[in-house]
Amino acid sequence: MTAHRFTYPEAAEVLRVEESWLRRHIKKLPHSKKGREVTFREADLDAIDDMFQHAPTSGPLAVASPAPAGVHPLAALKPLPGRGSLRRA
After folding, report:
1. pLDDT tens digits, residue range 3-29?
2. What is the model's pLDDT at position 65?
3. Which among 17, 52, 84, 85 has most CB atoms closer than 10 A?
4. Would you tell me how many other CB atoms lie within 10 Å of the CB of residue 8?
5. How many domains are contained in the chain?
6. Following DSSP, what letter does each residue of 64-86 receive, concatenated?
7. Are 52 and 45 in contact (CB under 8 A)?
């Protein structure tokens, strides 16, 4: 049994966007192309939906991003410039 392939009109309906929007942005979106035939798998539609998912960055519903594993939380800090450039006369 093969998975269903969605055409432009079907994919646009599932994603609730205009078909013209899909066509304009096709180079940035996951899809399959065989010859001139463009189709979308269900996984492609899920990936497109995930690409445009927005979550609050502040407030009580903000999603805290976990620190990458193995990276010390202070690793991104850079040292201040040396005091030698501030010599007194």
Report:
1. 899 999 999 999 999 999 999 999 999
2. 66
3. 17
4. 16
5. 1
6. PPPPPTT--TTTT--PPPPGGGG
7. no
